[in-house]
Structure formats: C-alpha cells, structure tokens
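Deliverable D4.2, example record:
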Amino acid sequence: MKKTIFSLIVMMMLSVCAFAQDTQPKEKLHRVYCELLGTQKFMSQKCNVSVDFGQNPYENSRLVDEKGKSITFNSMVDAMNYMGELGWKFEQAYVVTVSSSQNVYHWLLSKDITEDEAISAGFKTKAQLKKEQGE
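Output generated by the structure prediction step:
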C-alpha cells in the first residue's frame, strides 16, 4: 500500500513539473510593417522593388543579393512570394499613377517579430549592405 501511495505522489509531482514547464512565458512578439514599392522596368515586364520600413525614406532601399546586385522580380507577386518565404504577410495593396504611363505599386506587409529580431531579417537593402561594408 505504501508503494502505491508513493508511486501516485511521484507521478503527481512529475505531472505538476511538466505542466509548470509548459507555462513558461514565451518571448513577446510585436507586429511590424513594411511597404513594398514596385515600378515596372522600362521596356520590360519585370519589376524593380524597394522596401520601406518607415525609418529613413531617403536611403537606398532597393533589395539586393549577397553581392550587392539589385534583385529584379518578374512581378509584384514574385516579390511577395520572396517576402512570404521570410515570414511576411500581405495586408493591403494599391496603385499610384505617377505619370500617364508609370504606375507605382504599393503593397503593405506585416510580420510578428521578437525584440531581438531585426525587422529586415533574411534580406538586405543597398543601404544596409553599404553600412555593413563600412562605406
């Protein structure tokens, strides 16, 4: 009888410890936004895309690869697929016609990040690459 009671007490203690570990506070997430700005390349169906985080609208915000070469997308949907792989979610889109033939596509995206995570994790802009290279 003592062994049974002891076994029950041990099992109850283990289940309480397991439950306490599951209720540990998780890292706090906060939502951030960015805007993809797309313009069609001259005499092409491809798009030049820059990203606006609302921090410095005058810096060079074109998306670049590891070598610093501007990334060209087949369409705004192609750019959204690229950002979607990095965890960004589509919120809203609209078009502004700058001149009679030039449209600027604005796509608003959101992502939940931790306080330690950079807003631009997973990709670089031309300005970020220049900062890293010390230019």
